[in-house]
Amino acid sequence: MAQSESRLVNVTDSDDSESVPLTVTTDLTLTVDGTEATLRSTGERLFLEFPSAVSAVQALRSLPTTEHGRLHSVLTTGDLALEIRARNRTLAALGAGTRSGPLARWLGIDPVELRLSGFLSAFWAGAVATVNRLRSGVSSP
Questions:
Q1: d(Cα 126, Cα 110) in Å, to the nearest integer?
Q2: For 98-137, how does the pLDDT look when each residue is reduced to its tens digit (9 = 90+)?
Q3: Are 38 and 49 in contact (CB under 8 A)?
Q4: Are 11 and 77 in contact, with CB atoms under 8 Å apart?
Q5: pLDDT of residue 72
Q6: Strand arrangement of the beta sheet that strand 45-50 belongs to
Q7: Which of 3, 8, 11, 139 is 20 to 30 A (C-alpha) from 22?
């Protein structure tokens, strides 16, 4: 029986500066910094969904800032974008088609594209969910 041999190739090692389009066709459940997160895909867009904005921020902070550029580069080379989400709102994005702004540069997390409205909306949704849980747990006389 003949043996097949495969070689792993790092897309960042390519001499070609063009993007190498990749498609992701699976969904995964990951544990990031002790929190379970779901990774979904639409092919060229990845969605990393955290249960709360706080857990998403903790996971982002666990990634060294020196790795933000590397992750962005790999995603861009593969023509992929990654959205970091909580409560169905996009908090940040990296990769193809994303742009960092002055707030991300000021915070030292460039090239992450921050979505401030997503953060505010996710925190608000979390607060509303907490109030609703408290109300449903309190019995009325």
A1: 27
A2: 999 998 889 888 899 999 999 999 999 989 988 998 998 7
A3: yes
A4: yes
A5: 93
A6: 28-32, 35-41, 45-50, 81-86, 89-95, 113-114
A7: 3
Residue 8 confidence (pLDDT) above 70: no
- Spatial CA neighbour of 79 closest among 110, 44, 46: 44
Task: Flag whether the pTM goes above 0.85.
Answer: no
The three-state (H, E, C) secondary structure of 23-80, written as one string: CECCCEEEEECCEEEEEEECECEEEEEECCHHHHHHHHHHCCHHHHHHHHHHHHHCCC
Strands 28-32 and 35-41: antiparallel
Dmax over CA atoms of the chain, in Å, equals 77
Q: Kindly report whether the peptide bond that precedes residue 64 is cis, defined as omega within 30 degrees of 0.
A: no
Are the beta carbons of 83 and 45 closer than 8 angstroms? yes
Q: Mutual orientation of helices 116-137 and 53-62 as an angle, nearest 10°?
A: 130
Nearest one of 75, 89, 70 to 46, comparing CA atoms: 75
